[in-house]
Amino acid sequence: MVKGMVADIQRASIHDGPGLRTTVFLKGCPLRCLWCHNPECISFNRETLYYPDKCIHCGRCEEGCFAGARVVCGAEMTPEEVMQQLLLDRDYYQNGGGVTLSGGEPMAQPEFAFALLDLLKNENIHTAAETSLYLYSDEVMKKLDLLMADLKIWDDETHKAYTGVSNKTIKENFIRADELGVPIIVRTPVVPGIEQGIPDISEFAKGLKHSVKYELLPYHPLGVTKQIALGEKPMRFDIPSREKMKELSKYAYIR
Amino acid sequence: MLTYADRLAEMRRTKIRHTLEKKKQNGYTDLDDFGTVPISEGYCVEPWYNSENGSFYGYEGMCENFCRVISAHEPYIDPMEMLCGRWRDMLVNYRGDLHYMPDWLKENAKKWDFLGKGATNLWSKRWDESRFPYDDLKPWQEKYNITTGIDGDAHFACDYRIGFELGFGGLLKKIRHYRTVNPDKTDFYDAEERVVLAIQDFIQRHIDRISEMIPAETRPEIKENLETMMETCRAVKNDPPATFRQVCQWTAFFNCASRIYTRDGAGFQMDELLWPYYRKDVEDGVLDDETAKFLIADLLLIDPHYYQVSGVDENDRDRTNHLSYLILEAADSINIACNLTVRVHENCDKEFLKKAVYYLFKNKNAWPRFCNDKALCEGYMRNGADKKTARERIALGCNWMCVPGKEFPMNDLVKINIAKVMEQALLDMKQEKKRSTARLFQLYNQHLKKAVEVTAAGINLHLDHAWEVTPELVMNLMMHNTIERGEDISQCAELFTVGVDGAGLAVVADSFGALETRIEREKLLSWDKMYEQLEEDFSDKRIRAMMQSAPRYCQGGTVSDEWAKRLTESFVSAIRGQEMPNGRKLLPGWFSWSRTIEYGSVVGATPNGRKAGTPISHGANPNPGFRRDGAVTAQSNGIASVQCGFGNTAPLQLEFDPKITMEEGGVDLVVNLIKTHFKQGGTLININILDGEKLMEAHKDPELYPDLVVRVTGFTAYFASLSPEFRQLVVDRFLSGM
Question: ipTM for the complex?
Answer without folding.
Answer: 0.92
